[in-house]
What does this fold into?
Amino acid sequence: MNQNGFRHILSLSGGKDSAALAIYLRDRIPDMEYVFHDTGKELPETYEYLGRLEAILGKEIHKSTVENGDFIGFDQLLKVYGGMLPSSHRRWCTRMMKLRPFERFIGSGKCYNYVGLRADEDRTGYISSKPNIIPIYPFKEDGLVRGDIVNILEESGLGMPPYTEWGRTRSGCFFCFYQQKIEWVRLKETYPDLFEQAKAYEKPGKKATTTFYWCGNEPLAELEKPERMEQIKREHELVKARKKANSANKSLMNILGGVDDYESNEGCLICQL
Ligand code: SF4
It folds into this structure.
């Protein structure tokens, strides 16, 4: 806490930008508090990545959970919402599993909330709008872009989040509806058990008039058919080739880095930065 009574808080998502921001600010803001809002539905490697980050920061990362009164996790919340899976239009998950735990962690005191939004992106997303929480965007203020973030991570020894190795582009819940179809294919190939769990959630809601799907109107039971997975892969390669051809100004690191540069402008700042 500084002399004005403000706490310094950095929310980690398990993603590259918030991890890089923590490293970037480590020596500048010694009383920084780090927090990770665990939905209980994260990818397994997220915990390992945060453990390594903790060692680099030399400080504990506080883990907040969804638990609050009757709600002890996603499955209970889903019942409260009548079996209605969250989506970009019904994004109760971010509010209940990320924002509320964050606001509980802050309480009513004043704080600076450091957000890893980069200078090369124009994302919108959920961040707290409580008046006692003042957002600060160091990467935007200092003009840092994606290549800088990759450099910070490489130089620190932390590297990119491990899930990028199998082609996932974002942190957050394994069933996140912001995944592209190709990411669902990769989830199926990398973590068939998690894919099965995600698929099991696709059933009619309380009134049994609607079935909710994670991936638009396409049930995961359809998406996982071998011919459909092959089609998604082919289409993805075509889009990738087109993007590569159009990206004359893209940095060499992005092109050679093996990570698809398909960050959405949507998503949650708190889930995915
Ligand atoms: S990662 Fe996706 S599914 Fe999980 S809370 Fe965030 S928006 Fe919801």
The longest strand covers residues 32-38. Residues 7-167 form a domain with the Rossmann fold fold (CATH 3.40.50.620). The longest helix spans residues 226-246. Residues 123 and 264 are 8 Å apart (CA to CA).
